[in-house]
Amino acid sequence: MRIIKSLIFFFLIYLLVIPFSLAQTEENRLLISSNKLPSWVKPGLALVYQYQGGAGTGKGGDFSGATYQGYNIFVITNIEKNIAYGLKFHITKSISSGYLSYDASVKALNGLVYLDPKEIEDEVRKSKTAGLPPGVKNEVGSAGNNLYYYLYESSDWQSMTRFFIIYDKDGVIQKISILEKQGNNSSAVSELKLLGIYKISLPPINTMPLAVKTSPTYQIYSSVSLFGGAYSSSAPFGTVRYALASSSGSILLFNSQLTTSQNMSTSSKLYGNFYMGPFYIHPQLLKTDIILKISEINFYWEVLGNGQYGGVLTQIQVNGVPIAQFEYDVNTGLLLSANIPQGEGMYMIPILLNR
Predict the structure, then answer these.
(1) Tens-place pLDDT, residues 253-277
(2) Mind giving me the DSSP string for 232-294?
(3) DSSP letters along 15-59, please?
(4) pLDDT of 284-307, one tens digit each?
(5) What phi and psi, each to the nearest 5 degrees, are found at residue 3?
(6) pLDDT, position 333
């Protein structure tokens, strides 16, 4: 049951909550199989999921809520010690307001795009043998067409969590649905559906970018841009500092310290690899016009040219719509500034203070 509960918590965090991309916390390693990874899990693949989600609260005759749709994109870049690592892009758009939200990070992808079918079956069998608590369902079964399902549901008089996942015989996650209710007044639902597995072009990179050796500090500004930019304002949000904590092969772990303008402090651990991390990109990727493209969904990470702070300006766009911009030092790959949408007209703008 420990692995099952960890898996539920993991998806609730990453599907129901849109984290601030400069201060997100890497969760403990979850549902990592001791079995050998299947042959299809290899660098150079992008798994694209369509995302839909929403949350709402209501009391009496009042109700407020929001719904979102977009993509979760997972790009496999490397494998270390039987764990697949890669880039995760979470891009959503508010259905009601049209405002965008963006988050990107390096993740361990086991349990996000792949499950071990035998491991799931063993865990369910063990949990039933041990006895399930009242209000808990935990089962696996056939979903037809050579697909399988896993269901976990926990409910009491106050709340309910329902987690449903469909996967194939190779462990490829096809669909995830999550329902979370708290009392009679609030609920959240989220769904991921696999659109496709695509080959992408990334150069082999076997060296650590020079930026990793720095310990940069960024001043972060919070900006509001409403009504198509007709109204905008910005204010200091705080500072964030990064430092390398440890490394294992091509996987790097960083300490992050976020301090807000109200002197509230948060520490977190973040992954990085040779391709990118929380404050850098490998400069080799800046020597081309397109850093990454997934033409099937019109996703492009392109190099625009000279930036405002003497670096190279890059931009993420989907279907021709600009999403987020990042400026990097051309020699070290160090992030100099960024403009990251957080939803509902909010933007986070980190600017390098010192390195």
Answers:
(1) 999 999 988 889 999 999 999 999 9
(2) EEEEEEEEEEEEEEEEETTEEEEEEEEEETT--EEEEEEEE-SSEETTEE-GGGGGSSEEEEE
(3) HH----TTS--PPPP-S--SSPPPTT--TTEEEEEEEEEEEEEEE
(4) 999 999 999 999 999 999 999 999
(5) -65, -40
(6) 97
What is the chain's mean pLDDT, rounded? 85
Alpha carbon distance 42, 30 (integer Å): 20
Reference 10, options 38, 41, 31; nearest CA is 31
Comparing CA positions, the residue from 91, 291, 324, 331 lying closest to residue 201 is 291
- CA torsion through residues 238, 91, 78, 194, sign: positive
- Phi, psi of 201, rounded to the nearest 5 degrees: -110, 110
Q: Give CA angle at 23 (88, 314), nearest 5°.
A: 55
Round to whole Å and give the CA distance between 268 and 55: 26
Contact predicate 124/139, CB 8 Å: yes
Residue with the two structure tokens 């749709």: 69
**CB–CB of 92/21 below 8 Å?**
no
Q: Exposure of 145 by Cβ count < 10 A (0-12 exposed, 13-18 middle, 19+ buried)?
A: exposed
Of 47, 51, 49, 50, residue with least CA distance to 15: 51
Length of the chain: 355
Buried-state track 108-129, b at ≥16 Cβ within 10 A, e below 16: bbbbbbbbbbebbeebbeebee
Residue 341 to residue 21: CA distance in whole angstroms: 10
Q: Which two tokens stand for residue 313?
A: 């300006």
Amino acid making up residue 256:
S
Q: Structure tokens of 325? A: 């911009």
What is d(CA 221, CA 239) in angstroms, rounded to the nearest whole number?
9
Q: Round to whole Å and give the CA distance between 335 and 58.
A: 42
Helix, strand or coil for residue 61?
coil
Q: Is the pLDDT of residue 35 over 70?
A: no
- Place 66 in a pLDDT band, splitting at 50, 70 and 90: confident
Give me the amino acid identity at 131.
Answer: G
